[in-house]
Specification:
Blueprint (H helix, E strand, L loop, with lengths): L5 H6 L8 E5 L5 H10 L4 E6 L2 H13 L5 E5 L15 E7 L8 H11 E12 L16 H10 L3 E7 L4 E7 L1
Parallel strand pairs: 1-2, 1-4, 2-3, 4-5
Antiparallel strand pairs: 5-7, 6-7
Organism: Candidatus Ryanbacteria bacterium RIFCSPHIGHO2_01_FULL_48_27
Pfam families: Methyltransf_31
Protein name: Methyltransferase domain-containing protein
Length: 175
């Protein structure tokens, strides 16, 4: 497996029907649809992105997959409380390949903390584009240890690492 498969990964994340999840930086809905299928019709996924065209792509993908439990939210995640979601309402926040693009990563992590229930989890999938011979990054990304610091500084505890394919790493943090 070269690239991460959201459906296979979702199977390893202990997601249950009825859970409420936010997909930060949802892009084209790659993760949102897989997560929405996993939590079923009694659950809900808030697909959040700053770009209207990303939200439209997510809605289109959901429609194609006959998924009806996704709500799209346009928000700049680098502005505190921009999601307008209630404090402590979610079970999981998914962040896939979005934090490397953020200038204010601490604000993104704080928003995840704010909207998660006690014992809620943040699932991070990020590019691991390190040259295996030299150890140097091949493109801008966030090193695994730096990602741990971002979330620990926001109040999370590291829970586990999981396989996210050959080009990504996967981490789970708990509130």
């Amino acid at each position: 497996m070269a690239f991460v498969d959201p459906r296979k990964t979702a199977d390893t994340l202990e997601l249950m029907p009825g859970m409420q999840i936010a997909d930060f930086g949802c892009g084209s809905g790659y993760w949102a649809v897989a997560l929405a299928q996993k939590v079923g019709s009694s659950g809900k996924v808030f697909a959040i992105d700053i770009l209207p065209q990303a939200l439209e792509a997510t809605r289109s993908q959901a429609k194609l997959q006959n998924v009806h439990n996704i709500e799209t939210v346009q928000a700049n995640l680098e502005i505190p409380q921009a999601t307008k979601l209630k404090d402590g309402m979610l079970d999981v926040v998914m962040l896939s390949s979005m934090l490397a693009q953020a200038d204010h990563r601490e604000i993104v992590a704080a928003e995840a903390y704010r909207i998660l229930k006690p014992n809620g989890r943040v699932v991070v999938v990020e590019w691991d584009m390190t040259d295996k011979k030299s150890g140097h990054p091949l493109q801008p990304t966030i090193a695994r240890r730096d990602m741990e610091h971002i979330f620990k500084d926001a109040g999370f505890t590291f829970q586990k690492e999981f396989s996210a394919g050959s080009y990504h790493y996967g981490l789970v943090f708990k509130k």
